[in-house]
Structures are given as C-alpha cells and as structure tokens.
Amino acid sequence: MNYYIIIPAHNEEKFLSETLSSVLRQTLLPKKIIVVNDHSTDSTEQIIDSYVSTNIIVDKLNTTSTTEHLPGSKVINAFNKGLSELDNKFDFIVKLDADIILPNDYFERIAYIFKGNPKVGIAGGFAYEKDSSATWKLNHPMNKDHVRGAFKAYSKACFIAIGGLKNAIGWDTLDELLAQFYGFEIFTDNSLKVKHLRPTGQAYNEKAKILQGKAMYKMRYGFLITFIASLKMAVKQKSYKTFIANFEGYYTARKENEPFLVSEKQGNFIRRLRWKNIKRKLL
After folding, report:
1. Angle formed by the axes of helices 223-237 and 264-282, to 10°?
2. Tens digits of per-residue pLDDT, 108-149?
3. Any residues with CB less than 8 A from the CB of 252 and at least 6 apart, and which?
4. What is the largest CA-CA distance in the chain?
C-alpha cells in the first residue's frame, strides 16, 4: 500500500532526527515524507536539510505561523500546508509528530490493518513515555479505542469523508467521531508500542485548557457530556483547575455563540455515541 507522512515541526532539534530515522527504518517505506518546518528558530531546518540531501523521499516545506504552542490550530495549520504539496495517489495518510520513535514494522502493520478491513478508517498503536526512573511505561488515554494525535493514520476513503483534519483544538477527537458518523471503525493495536519522547501536554498552557472547553461546545457535546468529560480530564491530570478552565471555555463559547464544527445531525450522532460509551464503561 502507498502512503504519505506529514510531520509538523516547530523547534524540534532535540527529537526530530530520532523520528526521521525511525521512519526511514520502516520495513514498508512511505512514498513521501513532508516535514513542515513551522517557524523554527533552532536547528530544526538544518536537521531536515541533512535528511533531504540524502533521502529522495524526504521533502521540506518552510512555513510561518505563531510561535505560541496551542494544540490544534498551529499543528493542523502546518499539516494542511504539507497536505497541499501532495497528490491523492495514496492508500492511507499519516499525521506524525516530530518526537516519536516507531517500531520498524509499524507502517507495514498499519497497511495490513487497512488492507484486511476496509471498514477501518483510523488506525494506530499505543503510546509509551519514560517515567521518573527512565522506564518506558504505557501512557495512553483511558479510552483504549482512541488513536493518539501524535501518530494517526487515515485510510484515503475515511480522510476524504471527514473532510480532512479540522484546524481547531480537539481535532484528534473530532476526526474519530466523524469517522464513526460516516461508518468507519477505529482500530488500535496494543502490540505496536510507540515511544513518545516528550511527555504529553508538557507545552500546553491555561489558554489551551480553556480552548478544550470551547471545543466541547463546538462539537455539540452539551452540558452533561461536557461535565463528565471535564471531570474525567481533571481526575487524570490531578488538577481541579482543568475542570474549571474547561467550563470557562464551554460557557464562553456558548455565550459568544461560536460556530459549531459539526452539523446538527452529526452533533446528535456524537451525543448518542458519547452516552453509549459512558454507559458501557459504567456497566
């Protein structure tokens, strides 16, 4: 199967070489790797250039955006600029962070998943991060059916159906909700252990947490599901401030009547799906 990889990179000199090396070790290589150098001020561009000069499948795209790290808008803006450089001659497409080390057979296994079941729209492995004793430990969301935004692979049919990736925080939840709305399945393979070199959420700030609440409003979660989701996040992060920030974002978006990211029909589907998952976990 043919596939493309897009890697948004902003000041990733510490990790980028390891990420690119792990991609180039794949038993099934991509047709093209586009590294989007997003306004980097360190040696990120020089690292990209060193790979471009020695690997025909690696390309660089320079772009300029805000230096503020906000999950969603910045990274998806860079991803979409990389996407504009590619054709549509692929079987699946990958959004990959610049701080990831993949198993050597990762994409061979992902291709096998897509080829074996055309209903699968999004596929991926599980994230591992180093703990305080430098031991690699599973650090995946409580929802084991979720593929982390750091390494998401989309079948071509699914990617087209969901309209690509939304330039907003919460994109890596919305994509899976919309994929299911259009009849696709999410597949996670817990034998694919992905090393995530930067701890999750390390660069997120209070503004980002408020934007998460706004995203819940714009995905038409409604009050009760937003309450439960915010409480779940607060418990996981061990911070009541997360809960408060989420609701501040939710009510601000509602008060300002911000535009929704999904249609009313899609919103109804999303709420039904969310309630179904909540009830399944309680029983």
Report:
1. 50
2. 999 999 999 999 999 999 999 988 888 899 987 667 889 999
3. 210, 213, 214
4. 56
